[in-house]
Specification:
- With 134 residues, this protein is of the alpha/beta class.
- It has two domains: 6-66, Signal recognition particle alu RNA binding heterodimer, srp9/1, CATH 3.30.720; 81-132, Signal recognition particle alu RNA binding heterodimer, srp9/1, CATH 3.30.720.110.
- The chain is 18% helix and 35% strand.
- It has two helices and eight strands, in the order βαββββαβββ.
- It has helices spanning 13-24, 88-99, and strands spanning 6-8, 27-33, 51-58, 61-66, 81-85, 103-109, 117-121, 127-132.
- The longest helix has 12 residues, at 13-24.
- It is elongated and about 55 Å long.
- The chain starts with 5 loop residues before the first strand and ends with a strand.
């Protein structure tokens, strides 16, 4: 059994996939567009080129994503995606990439449970917790 996050970017999914490829070295394992659905009326109106479903691999994890209803208003509240990395240098590199054009919520630093932990909301509003496991 697995639990995999499913993120709805409300029209910005393709932009998000490109960002995560660049920032995290993620791989887009699968992508389907609304126009590819066998039912012509499926999905939001005028969103044929938008992403109906995508799978993004980050290390050993899979995050699923979509443009959802293409409302233009993604909302990511009440959760964070933890990103466990091997060392402090990798934490610094990935944290800086995720925080670019986003918002640092807690600067990367030493805590009682990690030599390097920080929280940043990326440019889409997804909250990431980057840390080195001891």
């Amino acid at each position: 059994m697995q639990v995999q996050p499913y993120l709805f970017f409300e029209g910005r999914c393709e932009e998000a996939l490109a960002f995560y490829r660049r920032a995290l070295g993620a791989e887009v394992a699968m992508l389907m567009r609304y126009k590819d659905h066998p039912e012509p009326a499926a999905g939001p109106p005028d969103c044929g080129e938008k992403v109906m479903h995508a799978e993004l691999r980050i290390g050993d994890s899979v995050i699923m994503a979509s443009d959802g209803r293409c409302s233009g208003r993604p909302r990511f509240e009440g959760f964070a995606l933890p990103l466990t990395v091997a060392n402090e240098a990798e934490a610094e590199r990935l944290f800086a990439s995720l925080a670019e054009a986003g918002e640092v919520r807690m600067p990367l630093g030493k805590t009682f449970f990690s030599p390097s932990f920080g929280m940043a909301a990326d440019r889409f509003g997804v909250l990431w917790m980057v840390y080195v496991a001891e």
